[in-house]
Amino acid sequence: MAEVVKMSCQEPIDIPEMAMQEGDRYVQDKLPMANVPMEGGDYEGFCDCLQKAKSHKACPRWACPKEAWQLALKEGPYQTQFQNMLQHFFVLLRCYKQQPQLWSVSQTALLDKVGNKTGCRSKRVIHLLDPVGKAWNKWVWGSSSHAVPSWAVGFVPRRRREQAILQLKCQLWRLRASGRGAVFDVANAFSSTSFASLDRVLYEDCPEQVALLLAQRYRRALWLFSVCGQEMLISPGCGDLQGDTAAPHKFLRVYNKLLARWKQKTSTEFEDSIFQLRDPLSGKKVSTSMIAFADDLCRVALCPSVFSFSRCYEDWNRKLDAELATAGLGQKRQKQQLLCRPAGRGAVAMLQ
Questions:
Q1: Which domain holds residue 288?
Q2: Can you tell me the distance from the alpha carbon of 192 to that of 203, in angstroms, rounded to the nearest whole number?
Q3: Cα–Cα 20 to 30 A to 248, which of 94, 127, 176, 198?
């Protein structure tokens, strides 16, 4: 659900002016607390994240590109007044526990989704955001540690999708048994995640003051749509900003927790005895029966017959639907795939 904040049919909406009004309203609703512990290194961390951001990327019409900020913040023998003011701004941001409203306003870009659906072609909403807000939120999110399960790849440092695909192929080759796998997909992952589930992840991983700041990123988000000369500004009721640097990591923290609970409810002792292996680097036992490719999921099982897998597959689907619903998510049933790899005596007859 979303609420329409403002519409304009004749001239573009004045986003900076609107952001000032929304920011003042937020301050009136929540009184600031000036005496709170400060986090050091905001300016240095922000500059590092800004430098690592991709160059020549599009930004909203009211924002300056990354290259302009780098030119203004270029290091010299002495600090400029602008650099000192920006450092002081980050201190005030922590004191008042409030991000600028302008950082959470996105200019949307609608991209066609590639699929085999009938009817009107669906759109993927990509958010163009202020580069400064993106860099600062990336730095603050990355300053806390976030647990990553062994079976998760995609948007995970030093893990690649190709690594997981190779692992899965080697696993099926070595099983030499009747192996069947199911590939699941989540519908509208970024835009459907509930605010409450995102809040829980933030307050689990980050200090309270940091979580309060990061939650404003999606709770105070405003999306600007421009179609045929008309503009509409909406306030979404769920989801994060696809296009924000930290958004995939926040979503995966929510998603991976749901998958961990689902796997615990659907695993068997026989499956664990086959698929649990010892990691040669950490020495810990890890499960290899499941791999998550960002929001896509692959699960492998050993079944004596197709009929036994059918029962197992229905149980997986039912329990996965129940877990995803707790975060406002759902499956794309039309994109599910079943992969069969029969082996041993009777394999040819089973294929026939």
A1: 152-187+251-351
A2: 20
A3: 94
Q: Could you tell me if residue 211 is inside a domain?
A: yes
Nearest to 210 by CA among 47, 28, 38: 38
> Residue 36 above 70 pLDDT?
no
> Which residues does 196 contact at the CB level (< 8 Å), separation at least 6?
none
Quick check: is 196 in a domain?
no
Residues 264 and 326 in one domain: yes
Dist CA 11 CA 76 (whole Å)? 42
Query: What is the per-residue pLDDT across 306-324, written as a single tens digit (0 to 9) for each?
Result: 778 888 888 999 999 999 9
Shared domain check, 138 and 266: no
The number of beta carbons lying within 10 Å of the beta carbon of residue 84 is 11
Task: Dump pLDDT digits (tens) for 100-141.
Answer: 999 999 999 988 877 666 667 778 899 999 999 999 999 999
Say yes or no: 108 and 66 in one domain: yes
Residue 331: its pLDDT value, please?
86
* CA neighbor of 235 nearest in space, from 24, 29, 18, 12: 18
| One-letter amino acid for residue 64 of the chain | C
Residues 66, 108, single domain; the answer is yes
Note whether 133 and 160 are same-domain residues. Answer: no
In a domain, 23, yes or no: yes
Residue of 165, 193, 133 whose CA lies nearest to 291: 165
For 338, the token pair is 């079943």
Same domain, 269 and 294: yes
Cβ neighbours of residue 109 under 8 Å, at least 6 residues apart? 58, 125, 126, 127, 128
In this structure, the number of other CB atoms found within 10 A of the CB of residue 119 comes to 5
Whole-number Å distance between alpha carbons of 32 and 37: 13
- Summary mean pLDDT of the chain: 84
pLDDT of residue 282: 79
Answer yes or no: is 341 within a domain.
yes
Domains in the chain: how many in total? Answer: 2
Distance CA 69, CA 51 (A): 10
Whole-angstrom distance, CA of residue 223 vs CA of residue 75:
35
Residue with tokens 């609970």: 261
> Do 201 and 141 touch, CB atoms closer than 8 A?
no
